[in-house]
Automatic annotation (TrEMBL):
Gene it is expressed from: LSM8
Locations listed in the record: Nucleus
Family to which the UniProt record says this protein belongs: Belongs to the snRNP Sm proteins family.
The protein's name in its UniProt record: U6 snRNA-associated Sm-like protein LSm8
Species whose genome carries this gene: Monosiga brevicollis
Stored PROSITE patterns: SM
Main location: nucleus
Amino acid sequence: MEGYMNKAVTIATQDGRLLTGILKGFDQSTNLILNQCYERVFSLHSGVEIVPMGLYIVRGDNVAVVGETDEETDATLDLENVKAAPLNPVVY
């Protein structure tokens, strides 16, 4: 996680949410602090909705995947025309 500090990351959560923001902090329980956080909400009928969340804390037990976001590639995505089913919760 140390290598992701102050970089844009995308987090898939156990409950099926997709969050993107600047990683500002974390602890041994993988609790994450994101600045300039927003959620991408997918829909089969309309484009991807961007929900701004500001400074946001994600509990470590809800983190499924964390990855660095390529901001240049991300900026080129036409999210208004992306139609996809919402993410399913992780079941195990």
